[in-house]
Every structure is written in C-alpha cells, then in structure tokens.
Amino acid sequence: MKRMILSFGIKGVDSLIGGLPSGSFTVLYGSPTCLTFSFIASVRAQLPKEFGGLKSNVIFIDGGNDFNPYTISYICQLLELDPKKVLDKIYISRAFTAYQLTSLIFERLEKAIDDYKAKLVVVSDIIRLFLDKDIPRTEAMDIFPKLSWLLRNISREKQVAVLATHLPIRRGRRAVFLEASLFGAADNLIRLEEKNGFLRVFLEKHPFRKLGFAEINWNHGNGCTLEKFLEA
Questions:
Q1: How many CB atoms sit inside 10 A of residue 44's CB?
Q2: What is the rounded CA–CA span in Å between residue 46 and residue 51?
Q3: What pLDDT is stored for residue 216 in this prediction?
Q4: Hey, how many other C-beta atoms are within 10 angstroms of the C-beta on 133?
Q5: How far apart are CA 55 and CA 6, in angstroms?
Q6: For residue 223, what pLDDT is reported?
Q7: For the whole model, what pTM was predicted?
Q8: What is the b/e burial string over 203-232, where b = at least 16 CB atoms within 10 angstroms of the residue's CB?
Q9: Any idea what DSSP says for residue 108?
Q10: What does each C-alpha distance from 196 to 32, 36, 140, 217, 221 come to in angstroms?
C-alpha cells in the first residue's frame, strides 16, 4: 500500500522532513510552536490528497488542555476553508490525568480511528500528565514506554499518521526517562527551536531522509508570519 503524506505547507519545512507519512509515529518537541504545527496538521489533513492533505477526519487527544479553536479558525481563513466544517471533523478527547490519557489510547483509540475514519491522530503534550506527583514515578515509568510503543504500533496497523507533541518541561530523572522512551519509539523526531524571531526546525531522526535543519523567519508564529509562510 502506497503511503499517504500529510504536508505542513510551510516553505522549507516540508522539503526537510518530507511531511507526515501514514503508518508512522512522529514526535514534535522543543518549543510551544509545536502546538501551532499540530493545529496546521489538523486543518491540512482535511485537504484533498493532491493538495498535500489526507482528505480525512482527525482525532485530537488533548493531554495539556491545549486545543485552540481560534487558532484553527485563523488557519482555516488563510487556507480559505470553512472553520465550522473543519472543526466539525476534528474529534477531540481531553485527558486531565495520566490514567485518563492511558485509557483513551489503550482502550478507545483504535476503535475511534475506525469509527471516525481518521487518518491523522494528534496526541498533545504527551508527557506532561505523567509528571504529575499524583502518579507514582515507578508507575509512570512502567506505563509510558508501553503507551509510546503502542502509538507506533497503531500507526502501522491502522496506516494512520500519528503526531505527538512534547512541550518544554521541568527537568528531572522521571522527565529524562520519559523523553528517552518517547524519542526511542518515534519513527520521526523533529525539534523546534525559537531564537531572535527565527524558528529552526531540526530533523533529528528519520528512517531514510537526510538529517539537518531549516530556518525560517517565524517571529514566534504570529499571524502575519503564518500568513506569509503557510501555503494554500
């Protein structure tokens, strides 16, 4: 089966990372701009395949209370899409504890992919809930690697693109272990770094593309810059 590729439609980025392939697990980390990229992917996934989309519904598992319908609407305006129709095709599940996030992914995700005919799954702020002091460290360190590898397996079995975002966190033994588990399970690892109004996109892991980085004048992802760099 030929893989479908979801492009971000951002100059310089797609040529570096090659988009988000179906059947793969991608981790995007390092900067809050990761969220903007996940929103762009959630909108563009609904475009026809000839425009770099998947012509598909989207499942958005929100582990950080991050989902922003206003940002989604703004991206829709740039792409000349109806925000209401786009939002109606993004199926959001919010998790407020690590146990809820685990239940959503282990028990409900595969059925939801089939029910909603989704080709893109976004898991937002995937590590944060596992850093909560209410979940014992040993339990978090046991469950989280299994969850990460399950997402990789689901991407393959269901032939969907799975995108997880990981935002800046406090450092510590638990955080380092969880990061290593997540990065180890990822097929594609992308780091974003903002400095002096520029956004650097580093491709740190990929099964066959050349690793490297792209730099764009992002100006912290404000609307003007999005309009300049997001291609319809």
A1: 27
A2: 10
A3: 86
A4: 7
A5: 10
A6: 47
A7: 0.92
A8: bbbbeeeeeeebebebbebeeebbebbbee
A9: I
A10: 15, 18, 36, 9, 12
Residue appearing with tokens 């939801």:
112
What is the phi/psi pair of residue 180, to 5°? -60, -40
- The tokens describing 56, both together, are 């598909």
- Report pLDDT for 230: 63
Cross-strand partners of 190: 28, 203
Helix (H, G, I), strand (E, B) or coil at 224: helix
Q: What is the largest CA-CA distance in the chain?
A: 48
Residue 218, CA distances (Å) to 9, 75, 169, 228 in order: 14, 15, 22, 9
Which residues are within 8 A (CB) of 3 and not within 5 positions of it... i.e. 6 or more apart? Answer: 21, 22, 23, 24, 159
188 touches 205 (CB < 8 A): yes
- Cα 222 to chain centroid distance, Å, stands at 19
